[in-house]
Amino acid sequence: MVFDIEMIKKVYAALPGKVEATRKLLGRPLTLAEKILYAHLFNPATTPYERGKSYVEFAPDRVAMQDATAQMALLQFMTCGRDKVAVPSTVHCDHLIQAKTGAQEDLATALDTNKEVYEFLSSISNKYGIGFWKPGAGIIHQVVLENYAFPGGMMIGTDSHTPNAGGLGMLAIGVGGADAVDVMAGLAWELKMPKLIGVKLTGKMSGWTSAKDVILKVAGILTVKGGTGCIVEYFGEGADSMSATGKGTICNMGAEIGATCSVFTYDDKMAAYLKATGRTEVAAMADAIKDHLRPDAEVYADPSKYYDQVIEINLSELEPHVNGPFTPDLAWPISKFAQAVKENNWPEKLEVALIGSCTNSSYEDITRSASLAKQAIDKHLEVKSEFTITPGSELVRFTIERDGLLNTFDQIGGVVLANACGPCIGQWARHIDDPNRKNSIITSFNRNFAKRNDGLAATHAFVASPEIVTALAIAGDLTFNPLTDKLKNKDGQEVMLDEPTGFELPSKGFDVEDAGYQAPAVDGSGVQVVVSPESDRLQLLSPFAPWEGTDLKGLKLLIKAKGKCTTDHISMAGPWLKYRGHLDNISNNMLIGAVNAFNDKTDSVKNQLNGEYGPVPATQRAYKAAGIGSVVVGDENYGEGSSREHAAMEPRHLGVRAILVKSFARIHETNLKKQGMLALTFADKEDYEKVQEDDVIDIVGLNEFAPGKPLTVVLNHKNGSSDEITVNHTYNEQQIEWFKAGGALNVIRSQFAAVK
User: Whole-model pTM?
Assistant: First the structure.
């Protein structure tokens, strides 16, 4: 069955005409991203949009939500007055399953522990016409690639790794739940027209090198914010030689460079994957308009004329990479990694190696890793590290079990975890003798921020391809280079690992007994969605208060965050995931991971009401109880990482009025705006140093709040002096209305009320 085939037919029927109209409008050849963007405008354009400046309204084809973010997104949607979603939408239960002992036991525990949440998501999906993928069905991005992604389409998803679908030539963009509500309600979705980074891939990969190494290399080049506000478009002979799932890996981890999304141009590899996953009809339609699903020939001939930046990578020369620790852009070629480990005194012993996740759990990934596991068996090598395998979907899991690959992993002591996010997002009950002991792990995941995987600050987490992760698991040593080094086996012989081998697609085809899909009711009007007032997992939402119409004065400084402050620092995952549907309860994790610039501690800030130090959430609750607003000050790329809108909703709920930073990550800045918060940046980044611990802060100029017009912040210091500084913002007219109304959802609610 092809999901939503009529919608796809409509997109493809209209695409050639829209592309030709765009070519005339811009008066030049087009990149693939431009073709898809202009073909998905909410209203036809009359003049070209300026990259990096123009706010544009789009009409995405579909919405995807994972269970942790879907709770808040759907709690918001059910208040907006719609009877049914306006575009095809799905919910995927993948985040709430904790990895502890193994797939069956962990899934059973999750079904029991999260029963209330799963029933809520199932029933609300049933009511509003949303497809529901049950716990165990798989990770959202893998399931989307297998079932919903199609070349030339546009989708948004409430997870930062939504761009995974770019592996099938789709513009797929991670957003907060409020953005998803807009699209599900049939409204336009707003995005600043992205800049374009072109990555030309030449040559062809071989040996130990894999698709993961391309994005690990790109992350090293662009850093965690080098792709902010940009779409990364991959093209060239090297791109065409790569499997569709390999392309998905690269697009998935493009989130780690801050990119809006990443995309590959349509080719035979994509067509083969569509056919293998039961979508021959989609492949045939794409083949019929193939030229419109690739950049124009002139773009290939002279890419620097059409992209804002061009990077060229020769796949024939690309080395396997290992990135980390603590940040996904610290890139090391394998030939230099051992030296880096020694020079930086990182723990050489590898304690746990983990493969799988939404980034690397394809059939190709698993077969290449299994080829190394088979070598360990045949060459009498003892696997020195703990080793876990996370299949990306039930389709992949069932197929690799049928083909004997799970048995191979079992023979080397590998533990197969549930088809879920697990350790990648901190859902990992890790067994370790001393949680404060420095230790190293390596994963084929996408993120490796401190505490990300196991909640332990002492864990040094590294990221690599599944092949490299498996090889290092066998060695148990981070300084091992499988391309050059030998290992001593159980017989005392020195042996080398041969290059990994694998298959892009299963020779017998994919197979599955129960993929885990639940179709919604044709008519959901009679379906009841019940949320108990006594629940500690779910809480119905109340509208946020509108702006009071005055400048904001007498605000307290809540925290001046120092250094990296991701959404993990602002709203941790792991054990807190269970409260994702209860705004007040989850607000107790607000900013507990952020480092206070005044004492270098986490979750310890000065309460200006009593002069005592205490947890960030408790301090803010004291201010809220006293009717006092506050300000959070932050560093560069504040809010990088996951799309979780809880990182914006929690401060809003507890009474924080503004976030003032050196720079924002894209999704988080948008999430703050959607919730009616002030997202401000220092006009002079050095002014960050002027913020003092006991400051009382005024925000002036709000009565003249206008696009492009700076505001003024007055820092009133304890000694009676003050600093008046200029702060910038990126609000347009519509976003200013969100602020005035108390949030975008209040605007949507009033619009639907007026229609009715």
Answer: 0.91
